[in-house]
Write a structure and sequence with these properties.
The structure holds two protein chains of two kinds. Chain A is mainly alpha-helical. In chain A, about 75% of the residues lie in helices and about 5% in strands. Chain A contains twelve helices and two strands. Chain A has a two-stranded antiparallel ribbon with strand order 1-2. By secondary structure, chain B is mainly α. Chain B has one domain (about 5-320). Chain B is built from 16 helices and two strands. A two-stranded antiparallel ribbon of chain B has the order 1-2. In chain B, helix 3 (about 55-75) packs antiparallel against helix 5 and helix 3 packs parallel to helix 6 (about 130-145). The two termini of chain B are about 35 Å apart. The chains are: A mainly alpha, B mainly alpha. The interface between A and B is large, with 45 and 41 residues.
Chain lengths: ~300, ~350
């Protein structure tokens, strides 16, 4: 236990800023999760592994001498096609089935990806060094790496682009229509199969962006995927499907929670505290709803 | 129960009793198979009969593993010094100490997870469907991460369980753990079979089929859900305790709370055999164990890739499992009366 946080305000500011910048990234991943959950009614356990795969694409560009920031452009393009391939091979067979089937199937994909990445890229913790330097604030007491500010900025840009795309474009309208009522959309001439494939592709592309940003700001490792899945699931259940400001806010809240858990409990309990928070949130909502004799749907 | 099934049971029992002497090289594999069958059968109470698909039974398994080893060491020696010295044996159990410790440890390993299940059951089992699945997944992983940070049970460096006393060497060790796990299997089978003949099973099935209606019929569903989970936890903890002694080394995320392996295996075994049946999980676990050992031998290094593909294929193409497939093919064997005209009409409708 370390109570330095309360005695020394600069650490509090540091943790809050770190958490905010981290949380914006989480919100981006969670937005993809909310999209596929809302449209196709599947929960994708492999979400985190898609993120890590996107990160490795940026890392490889870095290894071959290209600046990893270009990964933000390249990674989503590759990941879009990876997403389409996963959809065609597996997801289209579980779309209209029981949710648990989709959880298990994507769990299988997650194990598969984890091990393939382990073979292809090795089991080391890696990061792509962007060489952006740091910014000092408050008399050099608060240190912010520029790469974190860059990644938060890029995430916001991508999120805004996506929202505008969903509102204005034809495909965006089709996706929203399918989310509201797949059957009615089908009757009115929307090719739902195509919409599902595109949704999963967009989700994978979002994961690719987030992964590239994570590889330049933090570290990536083949087995680090599951915590990202759990974080995005948590953000979605707190915010609700289709509530974008809610997703952003709860993403940032989760980021700040994690930074404080890191300082107070110690780094070895960081991931554990995230998973426990998920359990606590679910149990809290269950008790709140059970007063009205309802349950989470 | 008719005469044929008695012959079957006695045949299996005799086979189980002589198996380690017929296949002396496979004693450890057979013991692991027994543990896997116990896990699959108890998962089936949850996922198959009650419809609450859990990834969290690994919590009780890991808890039982740690508790059994801790009690076995802690009864005679200071636990902290034991884990600190790691693999080096500063203390040696005498044979009688080892067996007393094991007996007490297994009792604790079975009872404490049952109590834990009862305590958290009210909060967790109020969730339904996929929320329950994800919540229990989180619970299992959180337990692994947290136990990896606790010093007294070895933290990150792991916990070496007491080695088998020096009587009779490896043969005796293999036989001891085989008969222990086979005993657990027989106990589980008898208990589960007894449960499945009672009203309790019907209530669990009612909860699976429509919980709101079951509640409206005046069944206190929460009470039965918690009881079901406690029964699962009892046998999971027991299996964990035995497995800890068998493996000889406990690591928080790789052996005990291994949600990525054992936690998914138990779900998969039950689904492969067919959930919601008595024999499904047993057949599924046996098949799965053969598959798994084959993968581990022939695709060394690629076993997780093969496993991932296997999960996807089973889930997509055999969601009803082997028993479900047989049931669809030969419904008469399962005591279902089939009206041929009705079936044809349904096929035409499809």
């Amino acid at each position: 236990m370390d109570f330095l946080v309360f005695q020394y305000p600069m650490i509090t500011i540091q943790a809050c800023l770190d958490g905010l910048l981290l949380g914006i990234l989480f919100a981006l991943i969670a937005y993809g999760m909310a999209l596929q959950w809302g449209v196709m009614n599947i929960i994708n356990i492999a979400q985190g592994d898609l993120v890590i795969l996107g990160g490795y694409i940026a890392y490889f560009m870095y290894l071959y001498g290209i600046h990893p920031a270009w990964g933000v452009i390249v990674s989503p393009i590759i990941m879009y096609f990876v997403g389409i391939a996963i959809y065609k091979l597996v997801i289209n067979k579980v779309v209209d089935r029981d949710l648990f089937i989709s959880i298990l199937a994507t769990f299988g994909i997650s194990i598969l990806f984890m091990q393939l990445m382990n073979f292809a890229f090795g089991a080391d913790v890696v990061l792509a060094n962007s060489g952006y330097g740091t910014t000092m604030l408050f008399d050099n007491n608060v240190v912010l790496p520029n790469s974190k500010i860059f990644s938060a900025f890029i995430s916001i840009v991508f999120a805004i682009c996506l929202v505008v795309y969903m509102k204005r474009s034809k495909l965006g309208r089709a996706i929203r229509a399918t989310a509201q009522n797949a059957r009615a959309a089908k009757i009115l001439g929307v090719d739902t199969e195509k919409v599902y494939a595109a949704t999963f592709g967009i989700n994978a592309a979002l994961c690719g962006v987030a992964g590239a940003l994570i590889s330049i700001t933090f570290t990536i490792h083949p087995y680090m995927g599951l915590p990202y899945t759990i974080r995005s699931f948590m953000i979605v259940i707190v915010a609700g499907l289709g509530n974008l400001p809610g997703v952003a806010m709860s993403g940032m809240g989760l980021g700040i929670f994690e930074e404080f858990a890191d300082y107070i409990l110690g780094t070895e309990f960081r991931i554990g505290s995230v998973f426990l928070l998920l359990v606590l949130i679910l149990v809290y909502r269950r008790f709140k709803l059970s007063r009205k004799r309802e349950y989470l749907k | 129960m008719n005469k044929n099934s008695w012959i079957l049971y006695i045949g299996i029992l005799i086979f189980g009793l002589v198996a380690p002497f017929i296949f002396p090289a496979f004693k450890v594999q057979l013991s692991i198979l027994c543990v896997l069958i116990v896990l699959a059968t108890t998962w089936n109470i949850q996922g198959g009969e009650m419809g609450y698909n859990t990834f969290g039974n690994i919590l009780f398994y890991g808890l039982g593993m740690y508790l059994c080893a801790s009690v076995q060491v802690g009864m005679f020696f200071p636990l902290a010094e034991w884990t600190e010295s790691g693999g080096e044996k500063t203390f040696v159990h005498t044979p009688s100490q080892f067996f007393q410790g094991m007996a007490a440890g297994l009792v604790v390993a079975a009872v404490v997870p049952t109590i834990v299940a009862g305590l958290i059951g009210y909060a967790i089992l109020g969730l339904r469907g996929h929320y329950f699945a994800i919540c229990t997944l989180g619970l299992g992983v959180a337990a692994g991460e947290i136990s990896g940070g606790i010093e007294i049970i070895g933290a990150g460096q792991g916990f070496t369980t007491p080695p088998f006393p020096n009587i009779g060497g490896l043969e005796a060790r293999g036989e001891f753990f085989y008969f222990l796990s086979f005993g657990a299997l027989v106990l589980t089978f008898i208990a589960v079979r007894a449960i499945y003949t009672t009203r309790f099973r019907l209530i669990l099935n009612a909860i699976r089929d429509n919980e709101d209606k079951a509640e409206a019929m005046g069944i206190e569903t929460m009470k039965y859900k918690i009881t079901g989970w406690m029964i699962s936890a009892f046998f999971c903890g027991l299996a964990g305790g035995i497995m800890g002694g068998l493996v000889g080394y406990i690591d928080s995320t790789d052996v005990a709370f291994d949600g990525r392996e054992m936690g998914v295996f138990m779900v998969l075994m039950a689904i492969l055999g067919g959930k919601g049946t008595l024999w499904g999980p047993i057949i599924g676990a046996t098949l799965f164990h053969f598959f798994k050992e084959g993968f581990w031998t022939f695709f060394l290094g690629w076993q997780y890739v093969a496993l991932g593909v296997l999960i996807v294929v089973i889930v997509i193409y055999f969601p009803e499992g082997l028993m479900g497939w047989l049931r669809e093919k030969y419904p008469e064997r399962f005591g279902e009366v089939v009206d041929e005209a009705d079936r044809k009409a349904q096929v035409e409708l499809k």
